[in-house]
Amino acid sequence: MDGPPDTRQETLISRRAAEGVDLERKQAETRMRTLASRIKTRRANEAMLDISATGRGCNARTLRCPEARNLLLDTPECCKSHVRRIMAEVARLMDRDGIRWWIDYGTLLGYLRDGGMIRYDKDGDLGVHGGDRDKLLALQPELLGLGYHAVFSPIRPTQRFRSGDRMKVWVSNRNHTNVDLFVWYPDKPKKGYLDRKNYIGADLYKGRDFPMDWAFPLQRGQWDGIDVSVPAEPKLLAEHRYGPSWVDELREKHPPEARR
Known about the structure:
By secondary structure, the protein is α+β, with helices and mostly antiparallel strands. It has helices at 5-54, 77-96, 105-113, 133-138, 140-145, 234-242, and strands at 101-103, 124-129, 149-153, 166-170, 178-186, 193-195, 210-211, 219-223, 226-230. It is built from 6 helices and 9 strands, in the order ααβαβααβββββββα. Strands 1, 2, 3, 4, 5, 6 and 7 form a 7-stranded mixed sheet that branches. A two-stranded antiparallel sheet has the order 8-9. α3 crosses α6 (234-242). It is globular, with a radius of gyration of 20 Å.
């Protein structure tokens, strides 16, 4: 290999880092396919039995509806009502405690397209400023006391694309209809940006870190009649997440290509 020893070493380190990212991406994609397969079989069958037994929509004592796991199907009203109820409660508590938060991902798309939940969306998505992470954690016992099942995943410092540093607020321990809260921090390498410590496999296909002034100053708006906190540049953030096709009603969570 040509070049002085220091240069060769730097090249090897860069190459190994790139190989590590590729491997992690492949592992994340494999996990996603495996999870999808399990959902389509065991969980969907259990949910069908639950719903047929109750003779009505899902509730805190049942699994969520099987349609709530398939983007090709409209989400049942019972599931959407659970998301709205959690969203309203979480928004109220975060506003009360001065937590900086905003709607993001599919919830932001619904706000821009329809002023509310997209008819085939399955959950709610919120961003929280990393400086308020401790305040968010302090809400967990209160949410549990209100009957929800609130779980906070710890940071996974060595696994970028594994679920971590986010709160999921479920209807119950059994019904996993939920609102996700993702924590965003000022990005030290890229000054003026917000980034997460951990992403999930699906985030390989969405825009990730973004300029802080796309979020702040925060605005207020209405999402399905709920008073929510809206990023300063909602359309720029939506295009960053999903590409220019965000305005189209496509039944997909993300474009097919991996995004940086």
